[in-house]
Queue: 3 jobs
Job 1
Amino acid sequence: MLRLTPFTYVTPASVAEAVQLRKQYGDEAAYMGGGTDLLPNIKHRLAEPKFVIGLRSLREMQSIVREESGGLRLGGSVRLSQLEHSPLVRNEYPALADAAAVISSPQVRRVGTLGGNICLDVRCNYYNQSEHWRRAVGFCMKKDSEICRVAPGSDRCWAVSSADTVPVLLAHGAQVAVFGPAGERLLPLEELYRDDGLVPMALQPDEVVAAVRLPPPNGLRVVYSKLRIRMSFDFPLVGAATGLALDVDGMVRQSRIFLTAVASLPMRVRAAEELLIGRPLTDELIRAAGDQVFRSTHPMDNTEGSIPHRKRMARVYVERALRDFARANPDA
Amino acid sequence: MPKPASATAPPDAEPVSSPRRDRADGPAQADELHIIGRRNLKYEHLAKATGGTKYTADLKLPRLCFGRLLRSPYPHARVLHVDTRKAEAMPGVFAVISGADLPERYGIMPSSQDETAFAIDKVRYVGEAVAAVAAVDELTAEQACNAIEVLYEPLPAIMSIDEALDPEKPRIHEDQGGEGNIHKEVHLEFESPEVGFAEADHVREDEFFFEGNTHAPMENHAVIAQYELHGKLTVWSSTQTPHYVHRELSKALSMPTAQIRIIAPPSGGAFGGKSEMFSHEVAAAALARKAGRPVLIELSREEVFYCHRGRHPVRMRIKTGVRKDGSITAMHFQSWLDGGAYGSYGVATTYYTGALNTMPYKVPRYAFDGVRVFTNKPPCGPKRGHGTVQPRFAIECQLDKIAEDLGLDPVGMRMRNAVDPMSGTVNGLRITSCAVRDTLRAASQRTDFQARFRKLPFGTGIGLASSVYMSGAGLPIYWNPMPHSGAMVKIDRGGGVAIYCGTTDIGQDSDSMLAYIVSEVLGVDPIDVRVCSGDTDLTPVDLGSYSSRVTFMAGNAARQAAEKLRDLLLDVASERLETPRERLRLGGRRIYNRDDTDRAIDFIEAVQAAEARFGTLAAAGSYTPPKLGGKYKGSGVGPSPAYSFTTAVAEVSVDLETFELHVDKVTIAHDCGRAINPMIVEGQIEGSAYMGYGEAVMEEQVFRKGLHKKPSLLEYKIPTILETPALESIIVEGPDAEGPFGAKEAGEGPLSPVIPAIANAVYDAVGVRFDATPITSDRIMRALDRAKREGRIAEPAALAG
Ligand SMILES: Cc1cc2nc3c(=O)[nH]c(=O)nc-3n(C[C@H](O)[C@H](O)[C@H](O)COP(=O)(O)OP(=O)(O)OC[C@H]3O[C@@H](n4cnc5c(N)ncnc54)[C@H](O)[C@@H]3O)c2cc1C
Ligand code: SF4
């Protein structure tokens, strides 16, 4: 059997204490929400923390609350199953509930947290493997070696951002409340991500994702679609969050398109977004936006599925979503 | 969880053909049976359903320690040196062993003695065992494995059939097989196929490829070995062939079988993947001997992928001649099997890719050429439907093409060619009971096949295929004239009945089967019966749970043993009731006069009287198949005392935008002779159909850079319940004269027609052929793009890309 390496599990009483403990133990420590990413990584010897700081039972990070702005504040330790079933989320941000509902299996959703999904390590099928397997194929840049097995000539790591909720949060323009030694800071969630498989997040090691703040939708509708081989368990091979707000006259007022599982960060397709702004959703426009998505998508061969199919599906999902919006607004 | 989309025939559904009269034996009418044919509860069903069942890795022994194998990181390399000293010196390490400790060669087939417990001169695939450690806990064992120093000299790896056929490439085994990396070649010819091709109105040649895949049982392999001071070894192992493990372990350890006891605890699935001895079993035994402690080795899922012995990837070429009316005049079948690094069952697999192709359709002239090659991958072996699933895919897809070429209805064409009961094949196989036409009729009628085939809207389709399988191999793996199965039955004074049989219940419910058969014969309730199975000390030999042999063979053995005791009970009952034996019947824990059912004595009373008269009530029975098969070399593979027949219909839809293939429903009609328990037969049919579905659309054991690309259940896709099509099972009964109460097999046969039925349905849906498995979205996308470019299919709006 694959076993964990031994570690001490500590349960701080507050976020402040968690950050304090992280400082005290230094790089021998790791935060853990539900552990559905961290623990498999320990079994694969991708991480070997001596101390694990549990965030899942922190009350202050467990709730979903209405903010004054009218938006929602989602605690970092909110379970994926809570997102899936919360009436507030389901009614106001249905794509977020949809995205949570297509993560892995019911069991994993009951323990996995939103904070863990936001901080999910980037994935690669040369990397998320046992130590024996990685030794056999040759270790890679992300751990224990210098070269990338997917793109051996490359000087960077191309591991894939694979979270399902993140593109939806981004399409909604979410902000994130990060708690560190200096207290809480607020920044756009988009700024948390970097296009680099080695250091995919602009988060200090001791910082905690305490909460996500969603602005009120204000007419913005988001649709999330995910390609996977099976209807349960599977990470996205591509996932598209298409967000759109239309004017009364059917012109596109706001558009946000984010793709997951095709790059090291949740990828924004600005070219397609810009194409849509200020125009009515005609068939030609939808196709042109789809073309942009297709052309901007450059997945690598380090997930399941094939590159051509994943690229094609990025386009199909965005086009389908746009067609749905157009149908829902016959004026357009 | 209830199945969302599964529909089985309702419990009271009539079998399609009414049970015919048993020819040779037994209570003739179904209405005289008390247990057989009913939906009885499974043996020990509550333990399985509530988690009470103890699997191998659940067993606890005092002083148990933990073993682990060090495995090769190279697909092909010379092993220059193994230094275990550092590992041995580590605290908490009890024993370390490596190749030099266990030099004895073994192999499941007498002709393929090509394995050792640990690699000695060479490693031949990533994951091959090189050394092993026993330690106080798993983590220490892991660290000790990492401390073993192995010096390798990497060699070029052979990773494909083509490379393996190239005589210029380095050889994987210097002393096995023929030129290049050819392991086995078979060439057979019956009744000059050339003549048949000359007589044909239409001759078709096609090439197919069936991708390799693996068993993926829920339970990872596990073993516990305990070596006792008096020199006896006990091994608990998740195996489906304790008898073969017994023999092989004796060889590997150079220890007499009399000192070895193999126990097969309840198994969490096997599907062919646990039907020979593995390195970890030898390692646990040798470590236990050296450490003086019991040793548990529980494999990780990745290691299970390395054990493999699963479905061979097979390239196939078929040439078939037919007359205008669709009747087959001749067939030439060629197969190339990618065998992986060792022989395993591969010699048998090679023959199996040719042996059953002369059924379920008459092939009057037939030639077969098979080649198995060695490659640097985990060894392939038997998986459910052993070696017959790949050729069945190819043949049924080709028949669909031929029917289209000739403008024939695929059902009618199959009907015309179907083999007859009480007949034989050109390659010397004996056919007895056979209801293949009934299965064709049942499945096509239930799905309204003929009215829908080629008439559904673009994107939806329906396809059909039939198949045949054995109810047990007619010959054992190692030649011997002894029975294939033995059983003992003992009756306690209190009326309890115990059955001792070497069978292993791997989830196919062989324990239940034994309990039902013996209960039927003795007239007791299955709840009165205890089954002791899979223990080489306590139970008579049964060759194992493979080739769908257990119901037919062990069922007959148990029946024979029970009948011996029944006869003793009838002796005393006949006297007490002053009724001739012929008029007595057993049932409901009574022995009664069938013409005057109140004239009866209780079972317990009869038992006590019989024990007083005859002494201890215990008897043994056994089963040896009749002499079967032709007189040519290789005729030993294919014969079976009875064959099962199946027809499957698949209904599919293809999303023309995302290219996702949905198999909406699979309907399977299966001729199992007689269903001992229809509920369990349906379970086997559904399980087979599910597995076939997975192989058709997503499963693939593929390699990249010399090693398994996806050795985990996250990446190696087997379907979840959410994708699984609605399944409808139709049991077709046509009792077999030699089967116990008329029963044949149901565990493997229903799998193979599902795959070509799906492929044929996809063609019906989108007009593009898929001659290779699995039929993935990516392949559908590419094929439709190509077809569109070449103008072979009209362009539905959605296809633009
Ligand atoms: C079989 C399987 C399938 C899966 N499929 C999917 C899928 O389809 N889609 C998907 O998106 N995910 C999938 N996952 C990944 C994972 O389950 C989810 O991403 C989940 O949301 C992770 O949350 P967690 O709380 O369990 O994370 P953890 O494992 O606890 O943490 C993940 C990482 O984030 C850090 N972390 C956790 N919480 C915080 C916080 N509040 N602040 C700062 N750092 C933090 C941890 O240190 C760790 O590095 C799958 C996992 C498995 C095992
Ligand atoms: S992308 Fe390259 S460097 Fe990054 S994890 Fe994969 S193989 Fe390693």
Job 2
Amino acid sequence: MKTSIAHIAYNTFREAVRDRVLYNLIAFALLLSGAAILVGQISIEIEKLVVINLGLTAVSLFGVVIAIFIGIGLVSKEIEKRTLYTVLSRPVRRWEFIVGKFLGLAGTLVVNTFFMAIGVFAALFYVSHKFVHADGLVFMALYFIILEFLIICSLALLFSSFSSPLLSAVFAFSLFVIGSFAEDLRGFAAMAHGITRWLATGAAYLVPNFSAFNVITSIAHEQPVAGQLILQNTVYALFYAATALSGAVLIFEYRDLK
Amino acid sequence: MLAIEILGLEKTYKVGFWRKRPKPALRPLHLQVEEGEIFGFLGPNGAGKTTTLKLLMGLVFPSAGSARFLGKAWTDPTVKAQTGFLPEQPYFYDYLTAHELLEYYGQLSGVPAKQRKQRIEQILQQVGLHDVQGVQLRKFSKGMLQRVGIGQAILHDPKLVFFDEPMSGLDPIGRREVRDLMDQLKQEGKTVFFSTHILSDAEALCDRVAIIHKGELRGLGAIEDLTSTVRGKVEVIWQGTQMPPSIKALGAECHVAADTVRVIIDENQQDAVIDALRRERLRLISLTPVRTSLETYFVEKLRHAETTAATTV
Ligand SMILES: Nc1ncnc2c1ncn2[C@@H]1O[C@H](COP(=O)(O)OP(=O)(O)OP(=O)(O)O)[C@@H](O)[C@H]1O
Ligand SMILES: [Mg+2]
């Protein structure tokens, strides 16, 4: 039943909203306006650079933190609190529950990012009093950030389906940090020899390659994003998230509820 | 048609750090419940009642065996749309109000949007939560949550209802209401399967009961059949503090209060006791049969099982 996925997704979103997750927007707005006012007093040339850099980095970090903190509890908390009993005894399949949870969290992040994006554009307008064509590149960066969120949501959900929230948080954060250096890791692996090389290469390609998603710096310098990278990142993110989600479903499908 | 058919369901938990040590929670269980029955599932703490219900609801997976509901496989989604479940000590999304929760569950159970609103109103009325439907569930008391639990179990008008200790956490009025509700479900032709260790509830409601202990089925049948093997007792109370010797000679249990005496005797000694009281000109206050309760049966049966188990070891 496809409709139950939508209902579960909406309920997940509603929970996030009622848990005051969107309050992070206030912190974001304060941070951004503080920065915009501050750099406006320092230098005219770099202020736009700083606003884009800082703004987008904040969008990404705030989102990652939310994705992990909500994601790690999505399944384990429902098992712990036994709220799942009265859901799974209804005509809801377990995979539908997982997919619904994922979509709900992803939706929460998209909404959150949308409001943050408004903030970034407002700050841009504040420092330069107009929009130029190159500002459209910010949308590209935001798109990549959302793709990144999809991967992190799916990973947090995967960990949540078999381990405690604390462990899941540790796993997810580690993967996020390691994944941000995935390209360096691949470089190191290529320099190794023998079995180490195989293992290191395997690990380097297994962790999510977040470095490919970070175009913030180049966008701040108004460098366009190659069409190939867009395609590549889209396919990669969807594939990675789908795989992690399938893993979560496989684990959850055969799990005894406490 | 059979409403519930349990075919050798069995559950062994794996416990310990490496999940190596087997812990049998339910031995192979075979049970059949007719449509329209109120069926009681009795047993002391840790007997395996909740385990059985969780198995039936697909929340935990059996080590072996299966079940059929209404003639279909238990995992069939069309069957799940026709079953309702009240878990033990239910807990719900506490950021929702009672109304929102029922709305959500109605959606998941496929209650058509048009009927949903009216149905929810009706249920809230029925479980006595109409005044607090706009309050978030985090502010609900235990008994109120239990009422929400009962409400959500019957929300989608299921043909088959499973209740795990439906009376727990309820005040006397609540218990009465739940009894009435179960009776009403029976009138509507529904099948009710509920677990309890409160025997008077089972006595008042059930057509048949099953008794399990340590994961094993120990008794099954109509209550009269199960209780007929245990002899009845009668409680006699009279005024005064005097104890006629002929009654004392019966060796009855005897309690003397400020100005009454209370004894509990076997049913067949009843006439002798009344005669004695008359002879002594003592004023009889009351004579009540202590109805052979399931409890007596229960205790005797389990004690018997225990001693036989002990002697065979
Ligand atoms: N998740 C679990 N892991 C290990 N053992 C378990 C688990 N759940 C239940 N058990 C064991 O299974 C047995 C049956 O438990 P169950 O909860 O079914 O009892 P119950 O009849 O519902 O008792 P109560 O009247 O106290 O609710 C108990 O010995 C319990 O320790
Ligand atoms: Mg129980």
Job 3
Amino acid sequence: MPVSIYIPGPFRRLTHNREYVSVEGTTVAEVLDAVNARYPGFDMLVYNRERAIPAHINIYVNNQEIHELDGTATALQDGDQLAVIPAVAGGAGAPGNGAVPASAALTPDEVMRYSRHIIMNQVGPGGQRKLRNAKVLVVGAGGLGSPVAIYLALAGVGTIGIVEFDTVDLSNLQRQLLHQTADVGKRKLQSARETLAAYNPHVTIVGHEAPLTSDNAFDIIPQYDIIVNGADNFATRYLVNDAAYLSGKTLVDGSILLFDGQATVFKPGSGCYRCLYPAPPPPGLVPSCAEAGVLGAITGIVGSIQATEVFKQVLDIGEPLVGRLLLVDALTMEFRTMKLRRDPECPLCGEHPTVTTLIDYDQFCGSPPLVAPEPEPAAVGGDS
Amino acid sequence: MAVQVQVTSVIQKVVDGQRQLDAEGLNVAELIDDIERRYPGFRAQLMDEHGQLHRFVNIYLNDEDIRFMQGAATALSDGDCVSILPALAGGCHLP
Ligand SMILES: [Zn+2]
């Protein structure tokens, strides 16, 4: 059946400057193949080496991103409209939801949806557009990642990346707001996508369904403006710290155990996680939440604080939690802040750095490497 | 010197689950010795066998990290508050 496909400006040199191409196909994949048959090389623009759609390309079927549908297997009807929208580096290109230029005015629907934010003069329509253009990576869709991702989606942060390769377990439901009873056994990334799309279908969720490693961190982290750490182990925590610092990205850090929480913001040059804790505890010395337990609601407190710090960074308002470590004690309900300094001896951000590239973090932390479960072909995982 | 000591998360289990206790000492090392006398095993949470402070536990005098002061030799005054804070891994499941 004939389907029309919109070709973005940067790709039109292939299509002899045609803005729309009409081809036959019953699925998105068939249509992309048909375009490639007519304009060889198109493949290279819309697929990565693993023949997945890379994170910087969104494909829409009648204004719905195919991640929210069945990916490239999405079935097409006669007369459907496809659009290929690449993220454009540097300012006024495609923002989070792809089809809208960064500078575009807010739609009436956006003005209504975000009115409680827009009405505050620290936000305003300009701030809301900044949120729409923001790209934030959330490492982990668990206890901390859940409230962070939900509040970012609710606020209209245009592009939310999620690194997660786990599946939903019954014991997650005591605290992980992204997942519900019916999601047990499902890929966490898929469950997160569905929850976030239900909360706000206008934001783009980019999935990275693999453990973050020294091999892929530099493919993922530089795509984002701000990184939020909700990692559940020390190896990933140090990896995210190092990769964010080496990529020049602001890192919003949070951690929880028992009734306690910690949160801080690391901006390159103002100290890092290694300045705070120069070395990880030997395995087994500091128990995990699985071993020691954690209050479900503390994840909401610390995650909400992390989300708040992201908004402040994007909007450039208030005093960021930089150079301060916030401690939350749910039992006494005391919030205290400690001074956090850049350590001149820090091996990463100190005067004479010795960590200048990513290392083997499992070895550094003395822990066995994380192993991803077998990928399921049904799960559409963005790239990586 | 009477000093108030605030203990976070996992270290509480070695001080009978207390979150706060009073202790004495002219400096941080003496303070740790004082608590160790009452709660054997406390010191091992903070220091290795050579008396070197662990790098994954931070000790704050009021709101300042003692690593940026004189470490375990940092002097204490009456009424000071010392906080002991281990690194937390965060999210939740893998050990
Ligand atoms: Zn540092």
